[in-house]
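call fold(seq) -> C-alpha cells
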Amino acid sequence: MHIPDGFLTTPIMALTWIITLVVIAYAIKQTKNKLTDAHIPLMGILAAFVFAAQMLNIPVAAGTSGHFLGGVLVAIFVGPWAGTIIMACVFIVQALIFQDGGILAMGANIFNMGIIGTLCGYYIYAALKKMAHNKILAAGVTSWLTVVLASAFCSLELAASGTSPLHMVLPAMVGVHTLIGIIEAAITIVVISTVLKSRPDLLSLEVPS
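ret:
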C-alpha cells in the first residue's frame, strides 16, 4: 500500500501533504506537555514493534503480499494523537532509509495508513467497543476495517491521478487488503489478549487529549 513517487499527480500529493501536516501538527499540540515518564518508553517500544512487524511480508494471493500496519493497536495503547505521531515517524523512516514508499508521496502514505488507519481507526474502535462491550472483538474488527479503508483511499488517489481506472484498482486493492486485514486483526487480537492477561495496566496509559 506504500505508494511510490510518480504515481500521484501534484494536486493529489499537495492535498494529502496539507492534510497530513495539519493533523500531525494538531497531534503534537494535543500531546505536548502531556507525556509522562511512562508514555515515552511505551511509545518507543510500540514504534519499534510496528517497524519490525512491518518488515515481515506475508504472501496473500496471486503473488501479492501484505504486512502488518499496527495503527489501531498503537492507538489503543496511547490514544489516537500519540498513535498518529508514532505511525508517521515509522513511515518517514521507512521512506527515507528503506525507500518503502516515495518521498513526494509520503504525505499520501501517512494519510492513508497513519491517519485513516490510526486516528480514524481509534474512533471506530471506541464506538464498536461501546456497542459490543468487548475490547478484543472491537480491536479485531476495527483492525480489519481500517486496512480495507486505507486501501480504498489509496485506490481513490491512484484513480484521481489517472494511474489506474477506479473500476480496476478499487476492487483489486480492496480485495487483496480484505485478506491482509485478517492478518492485521489476528495480530492485534493476540497482542491485546496477551497484554490484558499479563499487563492490563499498559492499556490504561492513553495520553490525555
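The mean pLDDT is 89.
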